[in-house]
Amino acid sequence: MKFSETYIGGILFASASLLTGLRTTLKEFFTPKVTEQYPENRATLKISERHRAMLYMPLDENGNNKCIACGLCQSACPNSTIIVKTKNIVDEESGKSKKVLDEYIYDLGSCMFCQLCVNACPKDAIAFNNQFENAVFDRKKLVIRLNK
Ligand code: SF4
Ligand code: SF4
Fold this sequence. Notes:
This protein is α+β, with helices and mostly antiparallel strands. It is 23% helix and 20% strand.
């Protein structure tokens, strides 16, 4: 018969097992907590800079939209979340017709946050921000025009 199968051995084995569990409990008791008490802590809540909450169009240093309406983001998007509407204007210098951005439509409700669109953009005209509070009662409100 093994010692752990004896009466005393069983008590010792169970005590050791109990102490192992208590050690883990004690360690976690003194470990700093990472759970966020949202929404009570909304004012101090820290969201990672890398968090992909919503697509937006950052402006250049002159306050202009950087999009050249190439449509690469729309082509890269796997579920048609982006629609790039363009219009043609005549370039005054060259006299040639040129495509410019008219409306940049983004459906937050169908976005998978895969970032394929951002990676495809040659002008860094789109990026993700971390503004995550976007809940609405009507899905239509999640279809947003990004260029103002
Ligand atoms: S993150 Fe992905 S799903 Fe969302 S718009 Fe970009 S490519 Fe489409
Ligand atoms: S956001 Fe970028 S990829 Fe999309 S149309 Fe504009 S320039 Fe092209």
